[in-house]
Amino acid sequence: MTTAATLVKEDDFAAGVEAEPPVQAAVASTAVASAAVVPAGDEVLRKRLRLKMKLPPGRELFDATWPPMVGVLAFLGLWTALAPMVQTSLGALPGPDDVWDAFKGLMIEFSAARADAAAAVASGQLYSGPPTFVDQIFTSLKTVAMGVTLASLVAVPLGLVAGMSKRFNAAINPLVQVMRPISPLAWLPIVTMVVSASITSDDPTLPKSFVISAIVVMMCSLWPTLINTAIGTASIDKDLLNVGRVLRLSWRAKLTKLVLPSALPYIFTGMRLSLGVGWMVLIAAEMLAQNPGLGKFVWDEFQNGSEKSLSRIMVAVIVIGLIGFGLDRIMLGLQKLVGRDARS
């Protein structure tokens, strides 16, 4: 069956869309096959087979958690053993204990800054202290949320139209394939000049650096959503479209009643991929645009060059990874929820 979505190859899309194997069906068929070979009077063997088929919840939890825990502990052990052997311009590479101490120091700084801000507000003054590590985490989250939201607002409508129209898909396909691999570092100077010329107010609603970072994130993260939306729209069962023609549904009714419900799982898969790309792009954009955030925090600590800088940079790197993992899990949960609703 030919579809309108030619934005990516079929193999590329298959690597980006996750599918859940029917585990429960496999277990059920195995249980039936096993029960068929057990004699009718052998109740003890039947009970043993049931125990093998379905583990208790506690055992399942243990089997699911011990491999990651062993992996993390092994990594921490190697890190502790090898860190003193790696020498840098600021001394030996910090181990887990040094990074943990740096994290506690950053939390102490945050608590002190909150206390100073509360005292300033109580005295009727405006707190003007530098942003803390926690403040920059929230700034990065707001920036990536803005960028991915803008990307979704652009990519989803374009993907829907591309999936429903072969001619429109053929028209934008070369542009997508050319612009998709462009690095965020190449977009940054262009976006900076455009935003600087557009925002001329001395007190803009949104800081220029924030707008620049958000637009760069949007430019680099809209492609997975656009491609997955186009493929999901073009993969709709043709029988549904034929029913829509028989019922003489309008273009809007066909879009809202037939296309969107079928394409939602693909759209959320693209948004999940876009969020991961946007979070990676954001750090580089914040470094170069000097927008307050985790990227600027890493760059400032690198420029500082103190004894604690390397440990604080490693704290930021670990936090960036943990936040990225958390955002991916949130989007995966939404993707599964939408997919379940679409199938029901």
TrEMBL record:
<keyword id="KW-0472">Membrane</keyword>
<feature type="transmembrane region" description="Helical">
    <location>
        <begin position="309"/>
        <end position="327"/>
    </location>
</feature>
<keyword id="KW-0813">Transport</keyword>
<feature type="transmembrane region" description="Helical">
    <location>
        <begin position="258"/>
        <end position="289"/>
    </location>
</feature>
<feature type="transmembrane region" description="Helical">
    <location>
        <begin position="211"/>
        <end position="237"/>
    </location>
</feature>
<feature type="transmembrane region" description="Helical">
    <location>
        <begin position="182"/>
        <end position="199"/>
    </location>
</feature>
<dbReference type="Pfam" id="PF00528">
    <property type="entry name" value="BPD_transp_1"/>
</dbReference>
<feature type="transmembrane region" description="Helical">
    <location>
        <begin position="137"/>
        <end position="161"/>
    </location>
</feature>
<comment type="similarity">
    <text>Belongs to the binding-protein-dependent transport system permease family.</text>
</comment>
<keyword id="KW-1003">Cell membrane</keyword>
<protein>
    <submittedName>
        <fullName>Nitrate/nitrite transport system permease protein</fullName>
    </submittedName>
</protein>
<keyword id="KW-0812">Transmembrane</keyword>
<dbReference type="InterPro" id="IPR000515">
    <property type="entry name" value="MetI-like"/>
</dbReference>
<dbReference type="InterPro" id="IPR035906">
    <property type="entry name" value="MetI-like_sf"/>
</dbReference>
<feature type="transmembrane region" description="Helical">
    <location>
        <begin position="66"/>
        <end position="86"/>
    </location>
</feature>
<keyword id="KW-1133">Transmembrane helix</keyword>
<feature type="domain" description="ABC transmembrane type-1">
    <location>
        <begin position="137"/>
        <end position="331"/>
    </location>
</feature>
